[in-house]
Amino acid sequence: MAYISIAAFRAVGIVCQSTAMVLATFRLYRRYKTRNVWWDDFCAFTAFILDIVHASTIIFRQEDSPKLTPKQRERKVAIFWMTGLIPPLIVWLSRISICLSIARIDVQYTAVRIRPWTYVLIAAFALVAAILFSQKLYVCLRSTAWQLEPAVYCNIGVPLGYTSITGDLLADSILTAISFRLLWKVRIRQSQKRLLSWIFAANIWSSLVGIVYGVVVILGAKLGEGRSLVIGTVVHLKVA
Question: Can you tell me the distance from the alpha carbon of 5 to that of 136, in angstroms, rounded to the nearest whole number?
């Protein structure tokens, strides 16, 4: 039983991905035109390119079925790897980009020297991303029986779910706390402060969706044959 139809999945994916891409394009274009490009923009651009690749799965996604042709099964396996490995990279690259943005604000506007700590966070985020990436590869390459299932989905299970939830909560909480603390020291217009506050508060959205993603991963097989669509929808929300 599919909990989410392919049409609903595509609708959610298109809306989320389109919104994310428009905002990312506006940001990168504005930075380029003002000649204010820095390392945070390079990270954002890399995440943007990966997101374009990930968004292509919306078109090729199909509903789970026990009667898949060999070609259809190969396509679903390829889509699983794309949707399983690319989103964590996008999310953690985005967090690294925010860290670098904080370092930029620290350098340009304040006397509070938090820049060295942002580099520590970047290293920690890169480590967590590598752990999540390696965990998925190890579990799904160790046994390929999942490729013969109707859903063609590698159920990584509880460990990844808890790791994902913990990582999302810690990372986004730290970024939000540092960002708002830094904003008190930044001498800019109040309207700009409010804008920055909303941007950094978006980490809360990431945390909430991350929790949902972790719960869905933990539930795994309980979602039935439609689990890949459910998880795919949550992934698009998380990436956006």
Answer: 26
